[in-house]
Write a structure and sequence with these properties.
Length: 711
Amino acid sequence: MNPSKFKQKSKLRDEHAVIILIIVAGVSAYILDVAVDAFVYHYGPFLDVLTSTSPAPFSARLYILASFVVLGIFIHGSLANSRKTEERLSALNFYGGKLNTAKDLQGVYELTVDAMEKTLGFEYATFMVAERSTLKVVCYRGRSEPQLRQLPVDGANGVTVRAMKTGAPILVSDVSKDKEYVAGYPGIGSELAVPVAADDKILGVLNVESSKQGAFSEKDATLLQVLASHAGTAIINLLRRGEIEKRSDQMALLLKSSAEIIHSASLRRRLQTIAEAIRDLGWRRVAISVRDENMEMRSPDDLVTVGLTDEEREHMWNNRPPGNVLREHFGPEYERFRIGEFYYLPWSDPWVRERQRSSSNLVESHLKAEDMIDWDPQDMLYAPLRLADGRIVGRLVMDDPMDGKKPTLESLAPLELFLSQAAVAIENAQLIQQLNDAGAKLEEYADHLEAKVEERTRELKEAQNRLLKSERLAAIGELAGMVGHDLRNPLTGITGAAYYLKNKVGEKTNDKAREMLEIIEKNIAYSNKIINDLLDYSREIKLELVESSPKAVVEEALSLVKIPRNVKVLDLTENEPKVEVDVDKLKRAFVNIIKNAVEAMPKGGRLTIKSKRSTDDCEIAFSDTGTGMTDHMLQNMWSPLYTTKAKGMGFGLPICKRIVEAHGGKIAVETALAKGTTFTVSIPINQPKLEEVCTSVPESSLPTITNECQN
Ligand SMILES: Nc1ncnc2c1ncn2[C@@H]1O[C@H](COP(=O)(O)OP(=O)(O)O)[C@@H](O)[C@H]1O
Ligand SMILES: [Mg+2]
C-alpha cells in the first residue's frame, strides 16, 4: 500500500477516535451530572460547595452536552484544516515536479497559475515577470482579461510592485485600507503577492486577488511562497538550459565558420567570414580592420564590416582616428575596461563619455535605449587582433547586441577564438604577400639574369672569336715583322747594287737600260714602303705626347698626300680643343685615312674634314664622296692584309687603329654605297698619361665601332 495513503487513513481513524472520545466524554459528563444531581437531591447538601445553585435543569445539562459536541466539532475542524493544508502542500509538490518538465517559460507560467487556481483554490491568479523596469503579466486565471498588462516598477507602489521590490510576500486583507493600493480590476477585497526568486534575483511575482476581504491567510502566503520557489527554480533551469543550448549552437557555429575561414583564400573573404560569424553570435554590427605597425589602415580594403551600409562604412574610413589614438585604446588607461581580451566602454562611465564625445568616427546606433536590457546604444566594445608574439595586426569592433545585454566574460569567451583566427589570417596574408613580392623580385631577377647570361655568352663568344682571330693575326704580325726585317738586308743590298750600276754605266747606257734601272729604283721604294708598313704594324708603339690641335695635325697630314686635281679638299678643322698627342704617329694615321678617301674617289669628288669637341673627346671626321663600302668590306677592313686594291697592302687601317687606340681613342665608320664614307677619329681631351703604349698586334685587331647607313 502507498505509505502516504496509509498515513492518510490512519489519520482519519485517529480523528474519528477523537470525536467518539469527546462524545463519550460528553455523554459521561451528562450521566455523571445527572447522577450527582440525583445524589445531592436525595441525600442532602452533598457538594453544595460546588453547586451553589439548585440542581441543574435539564436544559443546562443539554448545554454541557452541546458544549462538548462543539468542542469535538472544533477539534475536528482544526484537524480537517491541517489535513487540507497538508493536501495542498502535497499537491504543490506534485506541481513542482510537473514544472520541471515544462518545455518553455510559457509552460512554466501556465502550470504555475493552474496550480494557483486549481490546487490552492484562488479566485484570481496572475503570474507577472520582471522585464527591464516593468512587471509584465505573462499568464492569468479567473478573468477574461487582465486589467493591466504591464506595471512600471518605479511607478506606484502597488501590492505586486512592493513584493517585487522587497522580495517578501505582501498580504493585504482589506485593500480599501491600504494607502498605496493601486486599483486594478474593480471589486477587489483582498490581495496577496509573493515574489518569484532564484539565485538571489527576483524574476517575477505571483499575485492572487479575491473579491472578499481577508480571503488570504498567512498559510496561503506560505503555500504561495512554496509554489513561487518551485516556479523560480523551473524558470532558472529553463534559462540555464537555454543558455547551454545557445552555447552549444555557438560552438557548432564556431566549428562551421572555422572551417569556412580556413577554406577561403583571400584575406578580405576570411575577415568577412569571421565578421559574419560574430554577427551570427549575436552582434548586429561588426567591423574588422587590418592595421600596420603604426595602427593605421593602409587602404579602404583594410576595413571589413557587417551590418553597416556602404555610406556608414565610408564614414568610418573617412573619419578613421589616427593610429596613435587607437593604440591608446589598448593602453593602460583603458585597462580597467577589459573583459578578457575585449574592452567594454560603458556610456554610463563619465570618463568614457568625456573621451568618446571627441571622436567623430562613431556610426550612430539604430537601436533605441528602451529596446535594450542593460546595453546602452552608445556603449563600445572592441578588441585587438593580436599575434602570439604580442604584435597587434588588427582591431575588431562590435555593436548592437541582439539580446540587448552588456557583455560578460562568459558571453565573450567564444568570440576570443575569432580574435586569434583573424590575427592569424592577417599574418598569413602578410606572409603570403611578402612571399609573392619576393617571388616577383626573384622572377624579375631571373628574367634579368637570363638576359644577362645571354649577353655574357654572346660577349664571350665574340671575345673567343676575337681571340682566335687575334692569335692568328698576332702570328701574322710576328711573321710580317720577321719577313720585313729579313727583307731589309737584301733590299739594302739591291739598293746599293742599283746605285752602283747607275753610276757605273752612267750616261753610256742606252735609254732602255736607264728605264730598267729606274724601274728597279721604283720597286725598291715600293718594297721599302711595304717593309716599313710591315714593321710599323708589328712594332711596339711608343707615344711621345706633345700639345697640339686637330687643325695642326690635319694640315701636316694633308701636306704629305698628293691630292689629284679632280678631288677637292675642304679643311674645316679648328685649333680647339688642344690635345696631347704623338703628332708624328697621329699624322701617319690621318695620312692613311686621307689616302684611302682619295683612292675611293677615282673619278673625283670632295673630301671634307671637320673637327668638333664632344663631352670628353676631340672628334675629327673625314667624309669622302667615294664608292662607299660593302658589308664584307666593313667587317674585314680592320684586319691586316685585307685590301680591295691591286697595289694595296691592307695595312693602312689596322695601323690607324693601333695608333688611335694607343691614344685611348677610337675610330667609327659610316658608309653608304656610291655615296661615300666618313671615318671619325675620337681622341680623349684629357689623355690618360700613357708613357709607353706597348702593343703587339692583338689590340689593334679588335673591331672598332662600325656604323653603316645605306639608303
Ligand atoms: N674611304 C674609303 N672608301 C671606300 N673604301 C675604303 C675607304 N677606306 C678604306 N677602304 C677599304 O678598306 C680597305 C682596306 O684599307 P687599308 O687598310 O687602308 O688597305 P689598302 O688601302 O692598302 O687597301 C681598302 O682596300 C678599301 O677597300
Ligand atoms: Mg690604305
